[in-house]
Amino acid sequence: MKKTYYSLVICILIVFSTKAQDIKDQENPLSEARFNYFKETILVFNEYLDTDNGSFNTTNLRVLHPIGNRSWNLRTDIPLISTNTAAVNKSGIGDVAVAISYIPYLSAKNGFAIRTKITSNSASDSNFGSGKWVLSTALVYGHYLSNDKKLLWMATVENQSSFAGSSTRSTINTSVFENTLLYSFGKNWVGTNMALRYNATSKGFPNSTFIEYGRKFTPNSMFYIHPSLGFGYQKAYNSGMELGLVILY
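The chain above was modelled as a monomer; its predicted structure follows.
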């Protein structure tokens, strides 16, 4: 019975993978510039967060590189963090993360990807990282809500769990359900996002929401800005501001 089940799953993935390969170069939810899965991508963003204990500023370099038939891609995040709190006022490298995504299904209007990410315990200072190695697994779904493909919905379900690291730091076990709506017009887009989180370790809900405006300089370069708010019991921050530059090549 198990062999039959696994064979069926493998066959379905092969069919889905073939579907993804056939349409990957066409317009589809996962080829949208803001969430691109198929081109080499450089994303540089700066995020400022105000918390009850001071401020944190993160400048992050993200590089995405498709591999194979472009149904797979690799992603690396290298954050530089600055803090301004009562205890710490300095800068350093945060926890570097590496992720791999696979796209088992894609059509002109729908698509989903599976992502696995490992965040290393590599921060140059304990204040700049979690002190843990963290495994994050996610399912990403994209769907055009309008026939003209101007309204896009992206949803992500993710679990973040620590599996190694400092015994003096809290275990990480967080579930995330994130929804984003983007409306495109001309060279511009506006969007809104809400991320609902449950921290099983602290029994808290560090949720967040943002609104976003973005504009393309060229078909392959763009910037965005989004102010955000944290909310919920044991929220991670009060308010924030993120600025980003995206380059596809």
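The longest strand covers residues 151-165.
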